[in-house]
Write a structure and sequence with these properties.
By secondary structure, the chain is mainly beta. It has one domain: predicted glycosyltransferase like domains (Thrombin, subunit H), CATH 2.40.10.220. The chain has 1 helix and 7 strands. Strands 1-2-3-6-5-4 form a 6-stranded antiparallel β-barrel.
């Protein structure tokens, strides 16, 4: 039994920081819940690594575009195959979040 409902949503997710490494990499979510996110990435991230990411909800979902800055940890990853070749499904927790204003 899952602790939280998962929603199958393909949304843009920008990786901002993994551990102490700053990034600006856009990937896509596979599903989202109130406790975390599963996203598709080309390379595995270290389990237990702190992660900062921004999920953008499009206007069709939220009425206007909304970005949510999230902090969590990588909890697992699983290799997958897709039409572009091998990728990794990465699960990360959602421990803290804040809504970002668009100016």
């Amino acid at each position: 039994m899952r602790k939280a409902n998962r929603f199958e949503l393909k949304l843009p997710l920008r990786l901002v920081r993994v551990g102490s490494q700053h990034l600006s990499k856009i990937v896509e979510t596979k599903n989202v819940s109130s406790l975390g996110v599963l996203f598709i990435n080309e390379t595995p991230l270290a389990i237990g690594e702190a992660i900062e990411y921004v999920i953008t909800l499009p206007a069709q979902i939220a009425g206007s575009e909304v970005s949510i800055r999230c902090l969590g940890k990588v909890v697992r990853h699983q290799p997958l195959e897709n039409q572009d070749g091998p990728v990794v499904a990465t699960a990360a927790t959602l421990e803290r979040y804040e809504f970002l204003r668009h100016t």
